[in-house]
Structure formats: structure tokens, C-alpha cells
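Running this now, will post back.
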Amino acid sequence: MIETALTNLFGLQHPIVLAPMGRIAGGRLAAAVSNAGGLGLVGGGYGDAQWLATELSLARQGTMRAWGVGFITWSAHRSVVELALRHGPDAVMLSFGDPEPYARMVKASGAALICQVQDLEEAQRAVRAGADLIVAQGTEGGGHGGRRSTLSLVPAVADAVAPIPVVAAGGIADGRGLAAALMLGAHGALIGTRFYAALESLGHPEAKRRICAARGDETARTRVFDVVRGLAWPEKYPGRALRNAFLQRWHGHEAELAEAVPAERRRYQSAADERDFDTAAVWAGESVDLIDEVEAAGAIVQRIAAAAEDRLRAHADLLAPPRR
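Update: finished.
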């Protein structure tokens, strides 16, 4: 078993955290990851109170282990954060924005405050907000992110915020990725795309099939899906998704798309309702190369943890004995 500051903080068996993917990481998926020894986080998304109430109840009722919830900070509302806290999560993760408005609420509830950051300035802001755990997110991950890659960002953040523990995110989908994160100075890994393709995720079966069939170079970072949906994401946070016909048509033509939004939004919403993923987005990271089947979340956790342990033991042999 791998023991780190992350596992000690929440009493985990494995240093694995479920990324709180909006509308994908529901209560059943979060509970399954927690029951397998990781930390499951429900994806608060854009703050749909009715959806959250249902999924948070499923998470709370589905596990006796630590679990939590994550929010898009710039989109969060105080009432929705309060709703989540009433369900008694062990952790609340805030991403993409200043955590300060909600940090005191979270910590006063007794929940651990997790802040996801994309650069060193945001890391220092998380320290000032009182973060108990900081997630350093690289560009390789699915969904929205910043400009720094995981390999260089994680050790830089770990150095900058010590002794606060750091978790690595972005492009991690197997035990090799978890072991590498630990070697970079992280205390665990936050994993999204691999759990999107879990049996318990709320992703549509066709979206999961596309993730399993895709390769990393079939993903792209883009703003077109935010433009067509009218979501005010800061420009510095594009989203990584699988390439499809809509992305190919509009990527690089965002200004033109903005002018065509009235008609294109109707078409896009219709495609999303019909699960037409040639138009609708499937948020996914470069790690899709490592995903080839839909599995139960518990099996994914156990396999990643076991492979990381094997990798760490095996590579101790690379150290040559000291010369006399």
C-alpha cells in the first residue's frame, strides 16, 4: 500500500482522487471510487441545485468512507455551496477562480479545502485561502485547464506551496502515471478521463465508446463548445475534448461562431439532447490512448494502485549499489 499525506488526510487506501467532472461524476461513481479506497468527488458543474441534491445524497448513502464534491469557482453560488455542505462532505474542491469567497465556509464546516490550480500564481492564492490540499492540473487532462504541462507544473507547485501536499492532475490514467506523479513530488493523482469510461459514470455509452476508441492526438484544446453554449469561461481556460465535426468546423473561427450563435446554439443543443457526438462535446484528455474498455470504477482504482506499487518496487532496482 502507498502511504502519503493524501491518504493520511482522508484515511484512504490508495492515493487516487476522482476528478469532479460536471454531469459525469455523479454520486454512484464517487461512492464507488471511495469504496475502492480512493477519494470520490461529485462534479458540481455549473451548480444545478436539484441535480446536486440527488447526486450528493447518492454519494453520502453509498459509502461510509471519505467523499467530497467539486465546484467551478467562478460559476458557483453561495446557496449551492451551502447545499453541498449540508450533505456533510469530507472535502470540497474549488477550481478555476478565486477560492477565497467560499474557503471560510468550507473550512468552518469541517470539510477539507482542496484547490485546483493551473499556475504558480493560483497556487499561492490557494495557500492564502487556507487550502489543505492543492491539485496541480496540467494541460494534458480532459475538460478545461490552463497553459502549463503536468510534468513541469507539478514539481514547481510542490516546491512553491510546501508543506501543503500537492496532487497531480492531467493525463494520468494508469499506475505508471500515478507512480510518475509521486516521483514529481505529488502525494497522489486526480484522475478524470479514465473514470469517465467507468460503468458508474453518468457519461452516455456512446461517449464512453468514443473515449475507448480514441487516441491522444484525436483530442484538442478549444473554446468552441463554450462559445456555442454561451458559457463565460475565461479565455485562459480552454477545454480539451475529442475532435469531432463541430470542432473541426469552428475551431479557429470563434468570432464567426459567436455571430452565428443564435442558430448554432439551437443545433448544438438538439445534438446534445440526441447524444449526437459528432456535434456535442466529449471532454477527454490525452490519456485516451491508455483506455480501451469500460470497467467498474472499483476495478480501475485497484488496478491503478497495484500497478503503481509494482512500478515503484521494480524501479528501485535501477539504483546501482554505491561504489567503494
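The chain has a mean pLDDT of 97. More later if anyone needs it.
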